[in-house]
Write a structure and sequence with these properties.
Radius of gyration: 18 Å
Number of strands: 12
Helix content: 25-40%
Shape: globular
Distance between the termini: 36 Å
Order of helices and strands: EEHEHEHHHEEHHEEEEEEHH
Bound molecules: fe (ii) ion
Oligomer: single chain
């Protein structure tokens, strides 16, 4: 295994094959899942407005990496205080803020297609974020106590909510790069069957995926709630799983009695760009790694 900080996957990130066989942590008619908020307070606002408008029995789960760009104490307090009012999983970012594993760096377990400079800048971002977290008034033990996987029930069906994949907090097996290969898709289908869940909802790999399998199963990855996900677009995405159809959806799938949809979070782009540059000016690590994506989206298109 590659031991470079930011490349490796700490052992504590892994979980057992029966991790999804236990009691469901929550049940709802409509479940929203938002991973990769990355400290974008305007995306958080857009998400909460959309969730508030949802009728019926509902739940919102933040499946990790809600912190990242919020590397100032007051900004981090605002994000942390709001998110922890809902169900939350810790991602690699929260894990490495609160209880850093030796040599994990940012804990991203970046695969080989991500360049060394990006990995080094991510490790520098997590250092600044740790300093801000320690200087804030937040109880970091609450972050380290968050679960790394939960099961939710929607319409009686089991939904496995993770940050990475079926085996690890920072696994990349639910990335579009892996699910796009026949071997990767077959492995994901085996993981769904083995885990006894109809849907896995993930986020860590930061690009969205919705991949359906026989038997009404699917892997859905919201990409990022707080950053653009497609070339030329400027909205985040959250996953919605419900017994009822969505009123508007960017794209979706019907799985038996469940509707799985990618919901656009059209946050105040101008306000966020201004705030981001205040937090991370030109030349800073996060600006160099992320500003192009924040402004123009990633080099990724929505497939038909
Ligand atoms: Fe992550």
């Amino acid at each position: 295994m590659d031991k470079t900080p930011g490349r490796s996957c700490p052992l504590s990130y892994r979980y057992a094959a029966d991790a999804f066989r236990g009691a469901a942590a929550l049940a709802a008619d409509t479940l929203w899942i938002a991973g990769g908020l990355y400290g974008n307070r305007y995306a958080l606002q857009a998400l909460l407005e959309a969730f508030d408008a949802e009728p019926g029995a509902k739940a919102l789960v933040f499946n990790g990496d809600f912190h990242w760009f919020d590397a100032e104490p007051a900004e981090l307090e605002l994000i942390d205080g709001t998110v922890l009012g809902f169900h939350a999983l810790r991602g690699n970012v929260e894990t490495e803020i609160a209880a850093p594993a030796d040599g994990a760096g940012c804990g991203c377990a970046y695969p080989e297609w991500v360049g060394d400079a990006t990995v080094e800048r991510s490790n520098a971002i997590i250092e600044r974020l740790r300093t801000a977290a320690r200087a804030s008034g937040r109880d970091l033990a609450r972050l380290s106590a968050l679960p790394i996987h939960i099961v939710a029930k929607v319409g009686g069906e089991r939904i496995g909510i993770v940050h990475g994949d079926a085996e690890s907090l920072a696994g990349w097996n639910f990335s579009q790069e892996v699910l796009g290969t026949p071997q990767g898709a077959a492995a994901a289908e085996r993981a769904l069957v083995r885990s006894g869940v109809k849907v896995f909802a993930s986020s860590h790999s930061c690009l969205p995926v919705l991949k359906s399998f026989p038997g009404g199963r699917a892997v859905v990855n919201n990409g990022s709630a707080g950053m653009p996900n497609f070339r030329g677009e400027r909205y985040g995405i959250a996953t919605r799983i419900s017994v009822r159809p969505a009123r508007t959806s960017r794209y979706g799938a019907r799985l038996g009695g469940l509707h799985v949809d990618a919901m656009a979070l059209a946050y105040d782009y101008a306000a966020w760009e201004k705030r981001f540059v205040e937090l991370w000016p030109e030349g800073s690590d996060a600006h160099r790694s992320y500003f192009a994506r924040i402004r123009q989206g990633p080099d990724f298109e929505l497939a038909a």
